[in-house]
Amino acid sequence: MTSRAQSDPAPRGPGQPPSTTTAGPKPRHTIVCPHCGTANTIGASERGAPHCGNCGKPLPWVVDANESTFDIEVKAQPTIVLDLWAPWCGPCRFVSPILDGLAHQYVGRLKVVKVNVDENQGLARRFDAMSIPTIIVMRDGQVVNRIVGAAPKEQMEAQIAPYIKPPKRNGDAASA
What we know:
The protein is of the alpha/beta class. The protein contains four helices and eight strands.
């Protein structure tokens, strides 16, 4: 049986951030499948992207990270969008659902990692987050773009999409 973070006692539904398990050496998150509603416990992984254990479809990858879990979370193969935010920040609350939506739109190719700068000031300094929201786009472990401030979905996507890896071709053009 896995434990969940005290502040998040139950898995959340589609469109809500995942719950995070803090016990153990690697962070674990509960992500609810938007296709079948199954709660999936997902660990940090350097390869691939999470898939639902019930229906097998890829899951939107949105996770919370802190100073101790950050390096594990950003080693993933998909493009990483790092959201440096704070709960009191209005523009941050505007950007968050946009990033969640992009994780759903680019499922399997984009991972959104959310870091609360009030609780993780070392990471805020590491990425020079002088204003929030600060969005850092990372590909293959390197920072490739930086967005400061809130913007509409179309503008955010225009600055993130060029760095998202193309979908893998598995030889089956008819699969959707």
